[in-house]
Amino acid sequence: VDGEKKKIIFKKSKIICVGDLILDIYGFGSVEKISPEAPIPILKILNEKYVLGGAGNVARNICTGGGKCHLISVSGNDNNRKRLEKLIKENKNLSLDLIADDKRVTTSKKRYVSGHQQVLRVDKENIDEIDQKIENKITKTFSEIISNFNIVILSDYNKGLLRPSLVQQIIKISKENNKFVIVDPKRDFFSLYKGADIITPNYKELIEANKEYFCKEKSEEDNIKYISKKMISKYSFDTVITTRSSKGMLIVKKNTKPLALTSLALEVFDVSGAGDTVVAYLALSLSIGKTLKESAEIANKAAGVSVGKFGTATVSFSELNKNLNKIKSVNEAQFFLNSIDKKKTIGFTNGCFDVLHYGHVEFLKNAKNNCDFLILGLNSDKSVKKIKGKKRPIINQTDRANVLSNFPFVDMIIFFDDDTPLKLIRKIKPHFLFKGKDYNPEEVIGATEIKKWGGDLKLIDYIKGYSTTNLIKKIKNES
């Protein structure tokens, strides 16, 4: 899978991000001795690295994921502003309206690092609220371009840009243009975000902004659920997604049962910027029509990749794809297949695969040997009952799919409810359709259709003597 090709899953995502742009600076060096002047280490700087941080990190993740992002922010009129503008130009699909304010200094955070250990962080900032003149410029710019974008993100690092009046103006204009608004907050009050669709605090931020609703006797999860419902009612949010570090995230939506997602991080190395990744992939997913649940799951997986990296980091679609479940809906599969290198061949086969046996495994391995990417159309429980009778399947569709997804030679699994996979084949349009040599070509469902787009039917070897039906009969006779 080549997630960096032009045709990728989020290519139609166009997101506008308004927020505090920060220049993250990393001074890498080594500590070899302690200062004789004070009991502190002496860091010998070897090199420096400049990275877009704050709202810039949200924007970077959107673009690295495959979408387009326009960033609106404010900075000082200084050298760090020039560094930010240079970094923006280096990011494909990222554009910028950076309003200069002579009264401000460009926000920067410089981290001094020895090995992978931060020794010191030095912040340079002016967190006074922007004046009315700057607010008017931002509002005017936002109003002029909002129609070109799918979703709006407010990335609030509490550095003075997103003052309450500007936030409400942006939300108002967004709603007038039927645009979805996601807020990543960094305040101890959330009233300024009233009317936003989704707000994504971490647990600490949620509690700090809602101390009056916090109850020590309740569990963390119960507190999140209770406070989120209060906020939805009080501030007209549609959804509150609370990130919980190593515990994953909890989603509370208006009039819907709360959903908990466990963390998918293999290793937590650095949590800085993980919230930016969550917001970016949430927006990317929602912008292409995925459900809230699907979008949150993707964002959760992206966060799991992010925390395994050092510093302010981005997550590419190809990295995310390694962690995505092989089980897809038809629509997801169609989006996903746009990310496949066009030189690679797509193969398709289907079956019930109820009570998996050696014959199944060898057939799938042989099919994979004849293509680059193998898709398995798996009969759903409903479909199996139609074909095999009310007592089948023996193994439910979820368990069957989970077992099959562990095989490296199965790249994707799609359930289908029909008696045959014909509709699925027509939508996927594979290069090859695989069936066992015990079939005659004219008997194979889809054999005629696949020729219409230049595909080919391949009858491949199978292991004789293996049958799920016979295996079940044998088990019954011996029980």
Report the β-strand fraction as a percent range: 15-25%
Radius of gyration: 27 Å
- How would you state the average pLDDT, rounded? 86
- Strand order, sheet with most strands: 5-4-1-8-9-10-11-12-13
Oligomeric composition of the shown chains: single chain
The share of residues in helices is 25-40%
Secondary-structure-based class equals alpha/beta
Low-confidence runs: 1-8, 265-271
Number of beta strands? 19
Tell me, what's the shape? elongated
Biggest sheet statistics: 9 strands, mixed
Task: Quickly count the helices.
Answer: 16
Cα distance spanning the termini:
46 Å
What does this structure look like?
There is one protein chain. It contains 16 helices and 19 strands. It has 479 residues and is of the alpha/beta class. The protein has a 9-stranded mixed beta sheet with strand order 5-4-1-8-9-10-11-12-13, with helices on both faces. It has a 6-stranded parallel beta sheet with strand order 14-17-16-15-18-19. Helix 15 links the parallel strand 18 and strand 19. Helix 1 crosses helix 7 and helix 3 runs parallel beside helix 4. The longest helix is centred in the middle third of the chain and has 16 residues. The N terminus is likely disordered.
Could you outline the blueprint of secondary structure elements for this entry?
Elements: E1 14-19, E2 21-34, E3 41-54, H1 55-65, E4 68-75, H2 79-90, E5 94-100, E6 108-114, E7 117-124, H3 132-145, E8 151-155, H4 164-176, E9 180-184, E10 198-199, H5 203-208, H6 220-235, E11 239-243, E12 249-253, E13 259-261, H7 274-287, H8 292-306, H9 317-323, E14 327-328, H10 330-337, E15 346-351, H11 358-368, E16 373-379, H12 381-388, H13 397-404, E17 412-416, H14 422-428, E18 432-436, H15 447-450, E19 456-460, H16 468-478
Parallel strand pairs: 1-4, 1-8, 2-6, 4-5, 8-9, 9-10, 10-11, 14-17, 15-16, 15-18, 16-17, 18-19
Antiparallel strand pairs: 2-3, 6-7, 11-12, 12-13
Helix pairs in contact: 1-7, 3-4, 7-8
